[in-house]
Amino acid sequence: MRTIKQVLIIALVVLLAANIATIIYQGTTDTTEPPVISCPDGVLEVSASVSEAELLADVTASDGQDGDLTAHVIVASISKLISEDTAKVTYYVFDSDDNMASYVRRIRYTDYRKPRFEVKEPLTYTVSEEIELLNRLAANDVVDGDVSDQIRVSTLEATENSSIYNITIQVTNSMGDTAALTLPVLRQDWDPQRPEVLLSKYLVYVNQGADFDPANYLAVVNVPNGEAELSDVQIENWVDTTTVGTYRVFYSYTNEFGSGTAILTVVVQ
User: Fold this and answer.
1) Which of 131, 137, 140, 262 could be joined to 197 by an S-S link, Cβ 3.0–4.6 Å?
2) How far apart are CA 170 and CA 95, in angstroms?
3) 155: CB partners within 8 A, 6+ apart
4) Pairing relation of β-strands 218-223 and 196-199?
């Protein structure tokens, strides 16, 4: 009987010692010290189409217990623009004790620009026609791609010319950057005999200081008996490519059946 008691006592002592050792071991190995994320100083220059792999290319992470954690760093988020072409990217990494480290750095998009619009068809309507603008407009962004479904259109605004109205369109990309543009809408009485002046484009973007020839965008003039000579089209051009702004070019052709008009919007940037 005494032997059995001695065995039980020894077993309890061993078990207690093991538990104490486990507690001591866990206390010495568990840590609340977070890992460290490192990357070169300065702003990282990238394209607007930058991949996650490119954002991680020069980022490293380490931990006193786990060692190298570079492979476990993730891109947690990219902020909206904080300046014209700059944003912030945030990195996260966790160690084996679930301690987290974060790091924020600035990135600059070398090819960034605001979203651009496209006028796919002339914004010309008869006075009795319902004006559907969105199906004639498109927008593209270097970050988000096609953002046409994000376009917002204002109501028509009258101008001094009773046939011309203004509309303002705008679109905002995922970077929080908004582009807005005012376009002309032409409304006329229905007349099947009226000449039709058609352009190859109804909205163009031109770099400041670049050459601009409005005749390059004149496509065809349809008249009841065929096509008129393009050289007979009158062009009113006030585009000044030395000054940033939005301009309009008016094309008109007149014959015995009436006058046809087309309007080109030019954005100098």
Assistant:
1) 262
2) 45
3) 167
4) antiparallel
C-alpha to C-alpha distances, 132 to 6, 124, 126, 254, nearest whole angstrom: 96, 10, 12, 28
Q: What is the pTM of this model?
A: 0.79
Does residue 221 contact residue 235 with C-beta atoms inside 8 Å? no
Main-chain phi, psi angles of 149, to 5 degrees? -75, -5
pLDDT in tens, 191-219: 889 999 999 999 999 999 999 999 999 99
